[in-house]
Structure formats: structure tokens, C-alpha cells
Amino acid sequence: MTISTEAAKPLPFSSALGSLIEATDAIKNFRAIALLALTFIGAVLVGGLLTMLAGSMSSVLLGFLGGLMAFLVMFYGSNAVGILLMRDAQGQPGMSLVDAVLVSLYTSHRLIAVVFLEFLIVLAAMIAIAIILFVCKIPVLGPVLYTVVFPLSAIVLGVLVFALFYVMLPLAGPAAWSGATVFQIIARLNLIVRTKLVSVILLEVLLFLITTFVALLIFGVVGTGVSLTSGMSAGILGLGGQMNMYSLASGLNGGSGYIIAAGLGGGLLMAAAAVVPGLIFTKGVCIIYLNATRNVDFSASEASLNDGLATVKKKAEEARERARALAEQAAAPAAPAAPAAPATPATPAAAPVDSLHCPSCKAPVASDDVFCGECAHKLK
Fold first, then answer.
1. What's the rounded Cα separation, in Å, for the pair 255 and 214?
2. CA neighbor of 152 nearest in space, from 169, 123, 132
3. I want to staple 163 with a disulfide (CB 3.0 to 4.6 A). Which of 7, 63, 193, 355 is the partner?
4. In this predicted model, which residue has the larger pLDDT, 125 or 354?
5. Do the Cβ atoms of 372 and 365 come closer than 8 Å?
6. Contact 67, 264 (CB under 8 A)
């Protein structure tokens, strides 16, 4: 049974549970099995060989490089397997291993961007709550405000953490494997969180139980065989107490040739044993994502996200232009002040001649004289 996104209506929860059992059919996808096995084995070989070289050369940098290379092999290889299983879950034609790896190399970086943005969202919420808690330090009003802030903050952070670890992170891969862009992934997962959080968590719990049961079964078989083989090897090869799990795990960093060989071979065996549980879990999250997005219109959610991003971009551009204008204004040399015009002494108004001389005898008089001092002529 394959899951198609073209169904007429969403599956009821009971049918979704039944479809999740179909995740065990992942072991029938031989291309995915081969690719995941090559991924695990390649990661063990690359990481193990570089770790051995780092141990022999006492190089921390080489050890770090070995871990990084092993992670990259696991990351891109696992995403290529996810692309194969997503196409299988959607009922689409298969893809060659080379094509799956090439698509993974071209698109897997979207997951890194999505995870980074998701953690930024949680970090922004925690910073906002921290600011509000600082406001609650106000005397008298603070405890009253904290009565409301405390339960609301607990709810917001709880929902964010559950949404992050039970929806955003597990379903970001299937969204990317289905061909969605970074912002389409964010918009779709946001809508799933708001509308189907509980049902998605329940399905993931069931998937975890199925995967755990299969893993315990497989590793029980492998562990029993490893224990018996280790005991026989210790007696026949004369290894004594060296054949134990600790020696095998640390054998890559040094030890006899048998211990190094057993450590490397055991690592390959454990990697191969993890293939089946890994396939079941990967196809399971693909099925959960397809069930959650079945017949759901994401256009409004994506348009809302684009509008919000456009608004933020516009405000950021306005702030950048304002900052640039202020910087240019601060850097521009100050214009020299215009020299002040020299003060022109006020020219006293020419008083009438008659006001400075007696009109009768023409003798000089002061402006405040009432009578002429020569002829006693009345001036005012």
C-alpha cells in the first residue's frame, strides 16, 4: 500500500494508524536498503580510519576531521535514502542511487537552514519572555504581573519545545524530501503545529514503539552472536580478557591487530544492523507527513509567511537607509558658519537745526532746555 497526496479527503486517525504499520514495508525497498547500508558503512569506514590515524599521530585536528567527514556522509546519505522512501510513500516511480545522492547534495542544505530558523524562533521567544520577566521586577506591580506571566510563559515554552522536537525537527526532512523550499517547509510545519499537533505526536509515539521493537529484535540477535563469537575468539586466538565491548569500542585508538580488526568489523556489523530500523523510521515519518498534509491547502499559510517576511524586509531596508543617511550626515564636514556682518554704528537721526539752536537768537541750546540761556526765549 502506498500513500498518495491526491486522496479526496484526509485519513481518519484509525486509518492513519493502519497506514503507519505499512512503514515496515521499507525493508522491501532494496535500493533504499543498499544506499543506507553504504551510508552507514561509509561513515564507519571514513570516521574509523581517520580516528585510527588521529590516534597513531596524536592529532586532535585529524580526529575532528574524521568526525566531520563521518557526519557529512551520514547526513547526505540519509537524506538520499529519505528521498527514495518519500517517492515510494507517494507512489511515484523509483530513482537510481546516483540520482538520489545528487538530489540530496543539491537540496539537503535546506534542512540545515530550517533547523537554524526553528532554533532562532525558540530563542526569540525565550528572549521575549526574559524581557517580560525583567519587567516583573518592578515593585508592587511586578508580582501582580508575574501571576499572569508565569503560566502564559510556561504554556508558550512548552508548546514551542514540543512543536520543535515532535513536529518541526522530525517532519522537516519529509517536507524537504517532497521538494518544498525552506520557507514552504516553515509555513507547512507551522500549519501542522497549529492544527494537528496532538495527532502527529501520537503517530510519532507509535512509530517510535514500532522502530524500537524492531531494533531490539535485530540488535538482540546481533548482540547474542557477538557475545558468542567474542568468547570463542578469546579462547582460540588467545585474546583473554581483551575481547569485551569496551576494548572493541576503543580498539580503533590502539591495541593489537585482532582488537583493531574486531572493532572495525563490529562497527560495520552494528551499522548494518541499524539499516532496518533506520528505514522503518524514515518511511514512517514520510507517512506521518503525508497524512498530516493530505488535502491541506497551504497557500494561505505560505502567503501569510511571505507577507510577514516582506514586511520585515521592508522595515529592515528602511532602518538600513535611515542608518546610512545618519552615517553620511555624521561623516560630512560641517559647513563653515557665515561671517557675521560688522555692526554698523547707528547713525543718530539728524535733529532739526531748530531743536539745537534758539529760534530767536540762534544761540546753542540743549534738548532739555526750557528757556534759552542767552535771550530767555521760551523753548518748550
1. 34
2. 132
3. 193
4. 125
5. yes
6. no
Q: What is the CA radius of gyration of the chain?
A: 41
Q: Is the pLDDT of residue 253 over 60?
A: no
Quote the distance between the C-alpha of residue 37 and its chain's center.
Answer: 29
Q: Please provide the size of the chain in residues.
A: 380
pLDDT of 310-331, one tens digit each?
Answer: 676 667 677 677 777 766 676 6
Q: What percent of the chain has pLDDT over 90?
A: 7
- pLDDT tens readout for residues 259-277: 677 767 777 777 778 888 8
Is residue 170's pLDDT more than 50?
yes
Residue whose grid cell is 517547509: 185
Reduce the DSSP state of residue 378 to 3 states and report it. Answer: strand
- Supply the pTM of this predicted model: 0.65
The separation between CA 378 and the C-alpha centre of its own chain, rounded to angstroms, equals: 104
Which among 5, 26, 8 has a CA at the least distance from the CA of 175?
Answer: 5
Can you list the positions of beta strands (E) in the chain? Answer: none
Q: Which pLDDT tens digit goes with each residue over 74-108?
A: 999 999 999 999 988 888 887 888 899 999 998 88
CA distance linking residue 287 with residue 173, whole number of Å: 12
Count Cα neighbours of 149 within 13 Å in the Cβ-side half-sphere.
Answer: 17
pLDDT of 342 reads 55
Report the C-alpha gap between 155 and 41 in whole angstroms.
43
Distance CA 193, CA 292 (A): 10
Separation between Cα atoms, residue 289 and residue 169, nearest integer Å: 12
Place of cell 516583573: 136
Dist CA 313 CA 160 (whole Å): 25
Q: Helix 169-177 and helix 182-236: axis angle, to 10°?
A: 110
- All residues at 6 or more sequence positions from 141 whose CB lies less than 8 Å from its CB, including other chains: none
Q: Cα(140)–Cα(122) distance, rounded to whole angstroms?
A: 30
